[in-house]
Design goal:
about 290 residues; alpha/beta; Metallo-beta-lactamase, Chain A; 6-stranded mixed β-sheet; globular; NDM-1-like; MBL fold metallo-hydrolase; Metallo-B-lactamas
Length: about 290
């Protein structure tokens, strides 16, 4: 079902969000010496490299050019043994679904225990203000189920999990080595700062707003000001900017804050090229 869902999103969401100035994915490239990303239309998947180990964060769409673009970065799909999943939406798990190209069949997946209920079929994912149910996701990889606040290590890389329900019931964000926070679909970075993610796609918008405020409080309590790497709107290392509008929603079909830097149709990735992927580090926002 992943391939059909991917093609459906590419066609229908391109129509729905064209001109709305919502999605601002990074092009394929390196953010710094540790973090790289691949662009898949509107979405980014990330890679964290330390020593001989590369961890993948989210698995994107069922996307035919993934191996090619990973090659631009010098990353071999067969080297990926660990994938952190923020949530199970089509644009975050497509490359590990049963009908995918199978690039990561040997990789171990890390997913929140609550989010796993979507994968077992106990819960169905609803979007577009609960009007549409997403297809059931089937994944056969080995899974490790995670809990809020859990910390563990992979080859000397420290990973902490924070549960941020709202967009999905079990959405997780991952803090790696205390410096990089991979936020999935928790934060939407607008021209004037971060908002709670797109309202039409949330299970519970009020819960999403509360979760974002709680995440800020947890980080502040520990004096952690990491780099924030989002699934669809780039990155920032400006803590204040990231949480500037944490109590507001990104509402694409109502009065909202436009971002003129966003592409008219982010599903058009013609500017994502191998040459650009090698032209220097990718710039952040709010700096």
């Amino acid at each position: 079902m992943s391939k059909k869902a991917t093609e459906f999103q590419k066609k229908e969401m391109s129509k729905m969000y064209r001109g709305k100035e919502i999605f601002k994915p990074l092009n394929t490239g390196w953010v710094d010496e540790h973090v790289a990303c691949v662009r898949e239309w509107v979405a980014n998947i990330f890679f964290y490299r330390k020593g001989d180990t590369t961890i993948m964060i989210d698995a994107g769409y069922n996307y035919g050019r993934l191996e090619e673009k990973m090659g631009w970065l010098g990353i071999d799909p067969s080297s990926i043994r660990h994938i952190l999943i923020t949530h199970q939406d089509t644009d975050h798990v497509g490359a590990v679904e049963a009908d995918s190209l199978g690039l990561f069949r040997k990789a171990k997946l890390y997913v929140g225990e609550t989010e796993n209920r979507y994968l077992t079929g106990e819960v169905r994912r609803k979007v577009i203000y609960h009007l549409y149910k997403l297809p059931q996701v089937t994944i056969r990889n080995e899974k490790v189920l995670l809990h809020d606040g859990e910390a563990f290590e992979i080859d000397g890389i420290r990973i902490e999990c924070f549960l941020v329900p709202g967009h999905t019931w079990g959405h997780m964000v991952y803090l790696i080595d205390g410096k990089y926070l991979f936020t999935g679909d928790t934060i939407w970075l607008g021209a004037d700062g971060g908002y709670s993610f797109i309202s039409a796609l949330a299970e519970d918008n009020r819960l999403a707003v509360r979760s974002l405020a709680e995440l800020e409080a947890k980080l502040e309590a520990r004096k952690l000001h990491p780099m924030f790497l989002t699934g669809h709107t780039g990155w920032t290392d400006n803590f204040t900017f990231a949480f500037a509008h944490k109590d507001k929603l990104c509402s694409p079909f109502k009065k909202r804050v436009h971002d003129p830097s966003a592409p008219y149709d982010a599903y058009d990735e013609s500017d994502d090229t191998e040459e650009r992927s090698k032209s220097g580090y990718l710039k952040g926002v709010g700096r």
